[in-house]
Amino acid sequence: MGNRFSRRDFVKVAGVSAAAMTTPTISFAQADRDTLRFGWAISKTGPFTAGASSTQIPNYHLWVDDVNKAGGLMVDGKKKLIEVFEYDDRSQPEEAVRAIDRLVNQDKVDFLLPPWGTGMNMAVAPVFFRNKFPMIAPTFITERMPELVKRWDNVFALLQPNAPYGTAIVEVLQEMRKAGKINNRVAIVNVTDQGGIELVKAARDAFANTDFEIVHEAGYPIGTQDLTPIITAAQQSNPDVFLAFSYPPDSMGLTEAARVRGFNPKVFYIGVGSALPIYRKRFAAATEGVMGPGGWNPETPELQAYIERFQALNGGLPDQWVSYLCYSGLQALGQAIETVGTVDRPAIIKVLQQETFDTISGPLRFENNIARDAWLVGQWQGDTFWGVAPKDREGAKPIIDKPNWS
């Protein structure tokens, strides 16, 4: 194979090696290797698969491919290609912790990349911290983030804490009501996993000082297959606004149940999964007007080039919220590694805390380890999940009225 490897070759070689390894073999100092070892444990099976396989896994592969095609990262005075060690955490926190421990102690990786989802990130964060691995998390949403980054100074969040998302959608609703487009009746549902629980609390807090009336509220367990009863109960409350703080499988199920039952609130907002390509593919034109957290403005040259590379490598489109942020975080990590010039992880963490990085999403800077600026509400308009809030952000689209389900 020579001294150049494609992303697929590296994953294959590292995967065979890692799968066969039961005890550590000969240990080499990192400076004696021609590669940098990156590892991750992420959900390839289980309920978190849809999110992980759309937002993080393909971007991990794309970034590795881009870096290796460019000759690698400059470390120890020479370019080093990236070698990948990859495990399935099966959407189980304890499995993720075991896999991360193996990556650190057996595979001797130089850098770890985080799993998908708030609960999974919370489970592995102590292991990252204990071993001083920088952890740039694309899908770690928690109101505790300002507190957590003080405890774990190696953790960096690409998304905002929960409160800004709750505040943003309530502000959107207030403007719509002021314009006479909706009444004050709101139905709220949420998945009773950590992410859903925290997001629904943020929404409740944001509604506290408004005249909106929450006419229905219900939670449902993660993994619930039949969401028709959840939609039926919400529909019976006759709301103008339906808010779901859901995970990808639920976002699909809630939308399908609403369509089947003809539940047509004037605002239909779902949680994680609303920006995924599989959501648009499944519901096609019926997504028009659906809202959710996040969004983007893909019209910049940098994002257009990213979309083209993503599609060429992965055979599909990126999601329209977290994907480009995930890739931007990897760019920041790569630039921080090259700034330090060695695998000195504590020094790399300090660079991440202090510098501004050139990324496909524009300048990326962390304040108190949380990325500045963010799209907080997106809406499907045509085939794009446009950012609509904050409304004063460059590229924001005006909100459109949601038509009845097609």
Automatic annotation (TrEMBL):
<dbReference type="Pfam" id="PF13458">
    <property type="entry name" value="Peripla_BP_6"/>
</dbReference>
<feature type="domain" description="Leucine-binding protein">
    <location>
        <begin position="36"/>
        <end position="381"/>
    </location>
</feature>
<dbReference type="InterPro" id="IPR028081">
    <property type="entry name" value="Leu-bd"/>
</dbReference>
<protein>
    <recommendedName>
        <fullName>Leucine-binding protein domain-containing protein</fullName>
    </recommendedName>
</protein>
<dbReference type="InterPro" id="IPR006311">
    <property type="entry name" value="TAT_signal"/>
</dbReference>
<comment type="similarity">
    <text>Belongs to the leucine-binding protein family.</text>
</comment>
<dbReference type="InterPro" id="IPR028082">
    <property type="entry name" value="Peripla_BP_I"/>
</dbReference>
<dbReference type="InterPro" id="IPR051010">
    <property type="entry name" value="BCAA_transport"/>
</dbReference>
<keyword id="KW-0732">Signal</keyword>
